[in-house]
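Here is one chain, start to finish.
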Amino acid sequence: MADRSRTALALLAAALVCGAGIRLVGMAVKQGYVHDETISYLAATGNQVNWASARDRLEYPFAAWAPVADWQRLYTSSEETTLRCIASDLTLQDTHPPLYFWLLHYAVAAFGIHPWTGPALNLVLALATVLALYGLAGAAGMRSYQAALASFIWAVSPAAVFTSAQARHYELFALTGLAFVWLLIRAIDERAGGRLATFAALSVVTTLGLLTHFYFALVVASAVLAVLLTRATPRCRTALAIGLALIVGAGLLFAVHPHFWRSFAWGRHMVVPFSWSEMPGRLRVVAYTLGSFVTVSRRIATALVALLAAGVVSALALRRPSRSWIARQWHDIGPRLRVVLASGGLLLAMQMAIYLSFLSPEHAFGLRYMSPVWPFLAIGVTLVFTRMRGHLPSLLAFALPVLLLASSLAATLRYQGPAFRPMIPTQIIHDADRILVDTSARGALLRVLLHARADTKVFAAEQAHLLSHTRDWLPQIRAGDLYVSMLPEGNTLKMRQEIAALLGKKHEVGVAHGALDGYTVAYGLGPAVGEGP
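Its structure:
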């Protein structure tokens, strides 16, 4: 960039160092796995179908007292595990394409499965995203210090940091989304877009994006629509070349992942009926998620978004000068930057429309789901502060990354959610010689197995099976054993109480310290009834 300066380079270096630093802190304190993370590791080792088959048929080690060492074969790659096997499993048991899980497969092969394995992979992707954001902002016409500041803001924002903390594909989703818009900007630039390499790269990134998340189609749609709405449409020849590049990219998806369409059958099961009574709850989720770019405090984030929305509406509705200022700023930033901002805004609008129309489940608008939107938000925030006159906006612009870094660091060290802290303290699981688990769901059971000793014996089956086959597990229960109860589909609080009552006939039953959260409970078994401590 022509105006590259020491300030810009220092900011970019700070973005890389601080972004890496806060993620390394998260990796150091991370002890647990969230539900979807355990599924990621199961997918990365090519065992989704093996798990489902053994579970459905109640084959060993399911519904039997089996050492954790025997369970490990269900989340360990074999010599026959290939990338094609991983992709095939995903089409039969999941809703996501395979690219991230291929990368995670090699990370697991190199380092094994640990709470930090996926985040370590995400750290590499996050650093690449910092550089991609800097490159996109510069290509769109931002000054070098603005581009570096936007990269810094994204790198240390709580939303981006918490996305990196989970072994899921959303970090890669953000990177491929940025790369696509960057290449599209180059393609519509008549001075640089006529090169064959640009269109070839656009095809490849389109394929990589679709192999990362099927919602990448929304990134493509929002970016193309942004070009049309901002009247940045290139000449007919260039437009045809862009269209051909997108078609080739989609065609490559068929070549690399030919049965991807099977995953859509799983996606249809996630659509829920529309309900006006649940709409306020979804609106609160939207407000909290957007505010989480600044803080993970639910109340502060929701209030912040509500105040911001009210201020914007008031300014546009009541103050004509405000509308004129916004229109003037929009005109002055230039066509390429208008395309970038419009792409981010349209992508946000599309994802909100899908969520608020109940085409996605209740949890599908969290921090990670918005990962491709956050870089565009960082660009927008940077422009707002750096284009306002006066010393105060400039001071706030450079203070914002520091405030975000402090917010992310405090949240990482204090946050008690399963992204960093397991629902059941790991020491309780590690110390148990036998563990009774009332679920065999892949996302739930693995969270226990991954913390247990290799010689610990585990009996895992659904609550209904445990109650109807008590002879298979109850006689082996001893003092000091652990009963872990979870409530995925099919399990109920009533059946949990019935199982606890059966155990209570033989042993004193107490809730393990720090384990109660309503969804997951660990019951420690004391001396036999009638015996002293």
